[in-house]
Fold:
Amino acid sequence: MGLSQPCIDEIAVSAYTIPTDAPEADGTLSWDSTTLVLAEIRAGDQVGRGYTYGSKAIAVVAEHLGKKCLTGQPALDTSRLYLAMLRQVRNNGSRGIASMAISALDIALWDLKARLLGCAVTVLLGASQSSVAAYGSGGFTSYSNAKLAKQLEGWVKSGIRSVKMKIGSHPESDPERVSVARKTIGPDVALFVDANGAFNAKRAIAMADRFSENGVSWFEEPVSSDRLADMRRVRDAVRPEMEIAAGEYGYDSLYFRQMLEAKAVDVLQLDATRCKGFTGFLEGAAVAASFGCPVSAHCAPTLHAHIGSAVSNFRHVEYFHDHVRIEKMLFDGFIEARNGKLQPDFSSLGLGLTFKRKDAERYLAWGEGEAA
Structure:
C-alpha cells in the first residue's frame, strides 16, 4: 500500500523582536534585542514549525519562497522541496538572508513530515544518541565581572560542565576577565572564549598564550572566519590542549569544506538556522566526518538537540543565554539542560514544540502572527 501524500496548503511567516534582559556585546558587535523568524507550514491536519534568528527581512524572503516553491507540493518530499528553494534563490545568492529563510522553512518541513508520519523528528532522522551535551554560553563583554561570575556560577550549579564567555571588546581587560571566570567555575569545568573575529592573527596568538594560563581549552573565531589562512596560523601556534573552533557563519557545505581543507579548525560549528536547515546541517556534518572532524551546534539549543542526536560526530550544543530565554518564553516543549544534557522527547510528534502565540503577540514585528 502506498503512503498517502498530503499536499502543503498553507504557509505563514512572522517575526518577533524580543528585547534582551540587559545590554549585550561581543568582540565586534553590540545589541539590545533578538528577532526570531517563525515559519509555519500546514498539510492535512498537521502544522510544522521552524525558525531562525536574524533580521525580519528574512521573513519576507521566507514567505516568498514558501508560496513560490512549497504551496501545493507533496509535504513528505523534503529533499525535492529543499532543492526547489535553492534553485529559486539562484539570481539573488544562496547565502546570507536567503540561506536563513530556507533554514526556517526546511526545519518546518522536517517537523511537518515527522508529524504526518506520527513520530519525533529525532526518530525520523535516526538517533545515534539519546541526549547531547550542552555548554553554557553568554558572558558578554558588556557584563561587569560580578555579572559574568554570577552567570557562569549559575550554569555550573545546574550541572553544566563547560562554559563560554565573550572577549575582544576591550582586549586589555580580557586576561583579568578570564581569570575571574576560572576562579568562579573552579579547575574542573571547561572554559571557552569567543572573540567573534575581533583580533588579527598576531594578537590572537598572544592572547591565546595568556588564556592558556587559566586553562582555556576552546578559542572560538580568534580571527574572522573569512580569513582561513590566518585562522590556520593561529591554530598552528596555540598549545595542543586549546582547540580552535569556527563555522557558525557558514551557509553551505562548500564553505565548510573550504574551512576544513584549509585546516583552520579543530571543531566545526554548524548552525541549522543559518546553513539551510536540518538538510544543510546533515550535509555539513557529513563533510566534517569525511575529514575526521567533530561538529558543535551554534545556538538555537532546542532545535539542535534534535538534529545533534542524529549526528555521530557531534560534540555539543551551545546553550546560548538569549536563545534559551526566548525559546523558553515562546515555546511549550523547550528542552532545558539537565545535568549538562539536552534530551529530546522521542515520544513527541515532530519537534514537540507548540508556539505560545498569546505570549508572543506583544513582540510581533512582521506578519499577521496567525497560525497556518
